[in-house]
Amino acid sequence: MKQKLNIIKIGGNVIDDEKSLSLFLTDYSKLEGLNILVHGGGKKATEVAKKLQLEPKMIEGRRVTDASNLEVVTMVYAGLLNKNIVAKLQQNNCNAIGLSGADGNTIKANKRIVKDVDYGFAGDIESVDVKTISVLLENNLTPVFCAITHNKNGQLLNTNADTVASELASALAKIYEVSLTYVFEKKGVLKNINDENSIIENINLAHYKNLKDDGIIADGMLPKLENCFVALNNGVAEIHIANTDFLTDKNIQHTRLIL
Ligand SMILES: Nc1ncnc2c1ncn2[C@@H]1O[C@H](COP(=O)(O)OP(=O)(O)O)[C@@H](O)[C@H]1O
Ligand SMILES: CC(=O)N[C@@H](CCC(=O)OP(=O)(O)O)C(=O)O
């Protein structure tokens, strides 16, 4: 039987709220078993970019990353946010180790190529080094991944954090029973973005496509859900989209992805 592995991703709105982040990290540190944390931080990167008079540009939830914005996201994700999260986990006696995809060559990516859109130094993941990551896990370390990867040719790439989480989950599902959870500031995927309680409890691919066509799902929720279906198809055992309370109460209302 495969060993269980929890992969949890937290987004920019949770990270940006000091109290919410602190509570989340306290709960996270109490989790048992094997755990990986993936964090975004898009909100902070946008704030810092604007201070530097750079104009942030997002297309379908992904950042168009020119050379200057790549410097900003590297400093914000792989530096400020990653190291703060690791320090807070260490404070809670969780032996965290902060990583970008370049560290230990854990995540190799290629420049994102999409017809008609030049995303600059944005990356799509090519491979995940399951062996190196499992060595860390089996030595009681908790990897904390940020949204920076590399192409093994000296180039760092900005990679959507939801994608980092789903690609890690997909790759690690070969040797672990993986539970993937996207934690964000809302209670789940909502039927009405203005109604916090309009949670859609189960979503399959056909349902998702209808919700997208109707404009009910938009912005950052698009890459999140697309990534979820990729992971489900790759053998990830369970995927949930929930708010921070889900960590301590698995019965709380939230969204579950189904095939
Ligand atoms: N139907 C929906 N339900 C919930 N959130 C939605 C929906 N459609 C769009 N969104 C937006 O998607 C955002 C989540 O994506 P994103 O900002 O990338 O979050 P994160 O940083 O946590 O990954 C929500 O804050 C919300 O504004
Ligand atoms: C290519 C790309 O879009 N990268 C993302 C990485 C950070 C991220 O995904 O942050 P959240 O999870 O907080 O949205 C970005 O720069 O916004």
Automatic annotation (TrEMBL):
Pathway: Amino-acid biosynthesis; L-arginine biosynthesis; N(2)-acetyl-L-ornithine from L-glutamate: step 2/4
Pfam families: AA_kinase (PF00696)
Cellular location(s): Cytoplasm
Site keyed Transition state stabilizer: positions: K9, K224
A cellular-component GO term for this protein: cytoplasm
GO molecular function list: acetylglutamate kinase activity; ATP binding
Gene Ontology biological process: L-arginine biosynthetic process via ornithine
Catalytic activity of the protein: N-acetyl-L-glutamate + ATP = N-acetyl-L-glutamyl 5-phosphate + ADP
Binding site for substrate: G41, G42, R63, N158
HAMAP family: ArgB (MF_00082)
NCBIfam families in alphabetical order: argB
Role: Catalyzes the ATP-dependent phosphorylation of N-acetyl-L-glutamate.
Family: Belongs to the acetylglutamate kinase family. ArgB subfamily.
This protein's name: Acetylglutamate kinase
Source organism per UniProt: Aureibaculum marinum
Underlying gene: argB
